[in-house]
Amino acid sequence: MGLLGKRKNKKFNYKPRYFEHDGDGSPFSIEHKFDKYRSTVGENQSLKGKFKTAWGELRETSDKNTRLRLLVLIGVLLFVFLLIIGFDLSIFYQ
User: Fold this and answer.
1) What is the pLDDT of residues 54-78, one digit of tens each?
2) Domain coordinates of the chain in residue numbers?
3) TM segments (predicted)?
C-alpha cells in the first residue's frame, strides 16, 4: 500500500432535483474557507515541499506591527506573572 502511493478520494457529483443556482460551481462542494489564500493547499507536494512553501509565504507576508504587538503582549503578561508570584522587582531600580 505504501509503495504504490495514496488512494484518491472518490468524488460524487450531487445534483439536487429542485434547486437551481445562478453561481459559479456547486453550492454543495466542500471547500475550506481559506483554501484560495493558501499556497500549501492544492498540489500534492511532499512534506518538505509544503514546509518550504509555508516558510516562504511566512517570510513574504511578515508584518512588523504584529511582531511588535506580540512582544508587548508577552512583556505585559510576563510582568503580571512576576507580580502574581511575588517576585521582588526592586532589583531593577537603584
Assistant:
1) 788 777 766 778 788 889 999 999 9
2) 9-94
3) 68-93
Identify whether the C-beta of residue 70 lies closer than 8 Å to the C-beta of residue 62: no
> Rounded to two decimals, what is the model's pTM?
0.37
Q: DSSP of 9-75, one letter per residue?
A: PP------SS----SSS-TT----TTTTT-SSSSS---HHHHHHHHHHHHHHT--HHHHHHHHHHHH
DSSP state of 77: H
Q: How far apart are CA 80 and CA 61, in angstroms?
A: 31
Q: Which pLDDT tens digit goes with each residue over 28-40?
A: 666 677 766 666 6
* Residue 90: all three cell numbers together: 526592586
Q: Which residues of 75-92 are buried (b: 16+ CB within 10 A; e: fewer)?
A: eeeeeeeeeeeeeeeeee
